Every structure is written in structure tokens, then in C-alpha cells.
Amino acid sequence: MIGTLFVCGTPIGNLEDMSMRALRILSEVDIIACEDTRHTLKLLNHFNISASLTSYHEHNKSEKGIKILEILKSGRNVAIVSDAGMPGICDPGYELINLMYENDIDVTLIPAPTAAASALVLSGIDSKRFIFEGFLPRDKKGRREILDSFVDERRTVVIYEAPHHLTSTLKDMYDVIGNRNVALVREITKKFEEVKRDELSKLLTYFETANPKGEYVIVVEGISAKEAAEKKTQKWESITIEAHVEMYEKEGMSKNTAIKAAAKDRNVSKSSIYNVVMRK
Asked: What is the C-alpha separation between 17 and 14, in angstroms, rounded?
């Protein structure tokens, strides 16, 4: 017999969100792997669950992953939990899960809320299409590269940020992507849950005097279809029609195909591009 790894979600704040299935699994498994044993012990004590704990986090994931694999191969069951929410989201839990698949160990899931999805819903910002970026890099070059990718992003963007970095992150975002509509969501499901919605510029003004408290989820509205079309048009208007067609020809397109592509970029008829190029 080989054991099963139970990926067990826990509440992101309010302990009443703990599922009955999660309580049962945590009370039945042989060992619980967790980020911080002290934090998880408080959770288990609240629900009167006695269990053996072992730490599994960013700094010991390699050696502990092997030990957990050995435990599962011996026929014992293991649950992995994070300090809050779903293991594997912005923590090394996904590496343990991947290790199990590589060794033909069964993995199953006990779902729970995640801060990213919960904040997106609370924000009221378009949730049909979105991307999750997690925490931005702390180095300037890495942050700039990520933020640059949001400039023309039409999907909603969801980002995590610590309170002591919030103001600088909002400033960097404003400098790179401009004055977008943003929702700042914090303390989800807790007593001081708050959603602050406004333009980036106004939020920056607010935090000139206010002190950020709690972990934040930043939800950024994507650009509209109209704005995206205008940006696209402005981009191509900066070069001549001839240069535009020549750019595609250098990529290997025939002249006729290049003319068609340029017409699509500029949102004009193919004949209007053809007339300019052939007259030249």
C-alpha cells in the first residue's frame, strides 16, 4: 500500500470557513506538512485536532520533500497545508505535488478560498478574464519588466503585496501603466475586511497620510477595447505605410500578405494600403 497526499486548503481568515471535509482529513492523516508548525498548531487546537506535524517551506523543501515521499511510500497518508488558503499558490507546495506525480503517488484536493479569487470577486472589477501575478519582483529591473507587460493588458490583473511595500508598488504602477482603476482588498473574511476602490492617482494621494495595514491584494482594471484599439492605431501611425509593409516583408511575407497585415493593423481597407505602396 502507498499513501495519498491530501492538498488541504484552510481558511484565509475566518475560521468558520473551515470545511467539514478538511477537518476530517486533518484528523485522519498520519502527518501534516505545514509552513509554520506554530501557526498550524493554533488552527488544529481550535478544532481539537491532535496530529503529528512536520515543517515544509521554501528553505527546506528539497530535503523535506524526499522525506515526505518516503513516508507516503511506506503507506502512511500526509496532508499539506499552508498558513492560509490553498497550498501551492505562491508557496512551494506545488513542488511537493509535482514530486508526488513524478513518483506515482496519488494526490487529491480539499479546496478552500484563495485570497486572489476572493479579492477579485470583492473588487467588483471585471472577472471574466484575469491574470494572477502573485508578488512582484523586488529588484527594479524585474518589477519594470512585469509592469511593462501590463501596459496594454485588457484582462484584469491581480497582485499580492505586503503593507510596507504597498505605496512604492502603487507609485511604480502609476509611473508605468498610468492612471487605472484599482481595488485594494485587505483582511478578507476578517473583522477589518476592507475594499478601497479608486483611481491609482487618488489612492497614492490617500496613502501619503494613511498607513497601510494588513496584507493586500491589488486588483487592476485592464484597458478597454476602445483604448486598446486607439493605442494600436497610434503605434502604427508612428511609422509610414511603406515602412509598415516592408517590416512584414522582412519577416518573410509576400508583398500582398504584408499589405493585408498592415491594413488589419491600421484598421483600414487593403486597397488603401495597396494604392500607397504600389504608387511608391
From this structure: 6
Cell numbers for 205: 494621494
Between the CA of residue 271 and those of 189, 221, 233, 234, 277, what are the distances in Å? 58, 37, 18, 21, 10
Residue 19 DSSP symbol: -
The number of domains in the chain is: 3
**Domain that residue 248 falls in:** 226-279
Residues 108 and 152 in one domain: no
Yes or no: say if 259 and 245 are a contact pair by the CB < 8 Å rule: yes
pLDDT for 165-214, tens place per residue?
999 999 999 999 999 999 999 999 999 999 999 999 999 999 999 999 99
Q: Each residue of 258-280: b (16+ CB within 10 Å) or e?
A: bbbbbbebbeeeeeebbebbeee
CA distance linking residue 187 with residue 168, whole number of Å: 20
Task: Kindly report the three-state secondary structure assignment for every residue of 146-161.
Answer: HHHCCCCCCCEEEEEE
Asked if residue 115 lies in contact with residue 86, where contact means CB atoms within 8 angstroms, the answer is: no
CA pair distance 166, 180, nearest whole angstrom? 16
Alpha-carbon distance of 160 to 133, in angstroms, equals: 8
pLDDT of 218 higher than 70: yes
Residue the block writes with cell 488589419: 264
Query: Running DSSP on this structure, what letter comes out for residue 10?
Result: B
245 and 206 in a common domain: no
Phi-psi region of 23 (alpha: psi -120 to 50; beta: other; left: phi over 0): alpha
Grid cell of 265 as nine digits: 493593423
CB neighbours of 38 closer than 8 A, spacing ≥ 6? none
* Amino acid present at 99: L
Last residue in a domain, options 223, 240, 255: 223
pTM summary value: 0.82
Q: Cβ atoms within 10 A of the Cβ of 74, count? A: 11
